């Protein structure tokens, strides 16, 4: 039986605000209880409203928060419009009222295997309290496209991006052509994501409806990577009416 908690908001803005409010509450509680909090921050079009609301949340001691980056393209410079490092700086990091204790960005510009080792060693020192993430049109979790690796314990992996994933990135306007979308990325692994105490998924829009249905109500299978969330103890999935439209249980 799934442990997923599904919250449907009236629109994208409310969806992002609700996800941010829960995440902010958990961050505050964790800092109060432990003196610090460790989080994972996602990127992509699905996170626009959530991040916009999160940076506006009050009374968060961001200087006690260490953040980790979910994924980044291999070979893409930070100056590229699709760089997730640039995305996080513009939409999250620079907008915070206090500087983070640390945000460990992923760089895809050097040796990707060595970068996986570097950020992997760092995240092993910081058990994650809250993971903010999304669901891809192909149901990927981070850049773990189907068939995803459900078993590896390595925190970060070099992964190949399938055509559906690359088409999504082109369709969202990040690249001028499909051919311009990189074929590889550094991604946080499924097991590292599942190690988070709480996972907050924000997945609005009709184009995510089939992936949301398959992930929440279908069988757990690596052909639907986000279906593994059914086995996590505390995952909250924030949807809008469009992304929830194919669910049998609403």
Structure description:
This protein has 250 residues and is α/β, with parallel strands linked by helices. The protein has a single domain (5-239), classed as Rossmann fold (3-Layer(aba) Sandwich), CATH 3.40.50. It has 7 helices and 10 strands. The chain has helices spanning 12-34, 48-54, 84-91, 112-123, 163-171, 190-194, 209-217; strands at residues 5-8, 37-41, 65-69, 71-73, 102-104, 130-133, 156-160, 184-188, 198-202, 235-239. The protein has a 7-stranded parallel sheet with strand order 1-10-9-6-2-3-5, with helices on both faces. A 3-stranded antiparallel sheet has the order 4-8-7. Helix 7 links the parallel strand 9 (198-202) and strand 10. Helix 1 crosses helix 2.
- How many helix segments? 7
Task: List how many beta strands DSSP finds.
Answer: 10
State the distance separating the first and last CA atoms: 16 Å
Give the strand line-up of the largest sheet.
1-10-9-6-2-3-5
Tell me the radius of gyration. 17 Å
Low-confidence stretches: none
How confident overall, as mean pLDDT? 96
The CATH class assignment is Alpha Beta
Shape: globular
What is the count of distinct domains? 1
Largest sheet: 7 strands, parallel
Strand content: 15-25%
What portion of residues is helical?
Answer: 25-40%
